[in-house]
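Entry for the shared binder. Reason: the reviewer on the internal report wants the predicted structure included alongside the sequence.
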Amino acid sequence: MASPAEAEAEAEAEAVAEKQVMVVAIDDSEHSTYALAWTIDHFFTPYASNHPFKLVLVHAKPTVSSAVGLIGPGAAEILPMVEADLKKIAARIIETAKEFCHSKSVHDVTVEVVEGDARNVLCEAVEKHHASILVVGSHGYGAIKRAVLGSVSDYCAHHAHCTVMIVKRPKIKH
């Protein structure tokens, strides 16, 4: 027979296992920072340590080739420096996001840095973690910019196999 402490630990482990997963996309934009803060404030902080979701933060690190584009002779010398910079940026983004979560008393956070196009990385993270919600920030592009540039949030809204919450920062009125 299990002791009361063992039974409580087992019940807590089962509760964690039953929690739905929320994946939050993070990058170094203000839109991403706002989306993470809004999500923590609305879905985690009100519940103290009994959060209704398991939180997974995902940063899509661009590939060196996507960051540099087509370059000519001398590329071999530049690529390692670009790769090192991309790794530093990713580490800073992850550390900042973790510190923010901890400052809001959200300590059970899984973080991942995955190299690739953000659209694919986020949809794959949803599948990998069996997420029920994907949270992405919105840059608020108009229809023409979205059509030309594409939009991670639009793509995920159509291709991720879960609910996609697009968090858009309200415009500040002067």
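Summary line for the report: The beta strands are 20-25, 53-61, 109-115, 133-138, 163-168.
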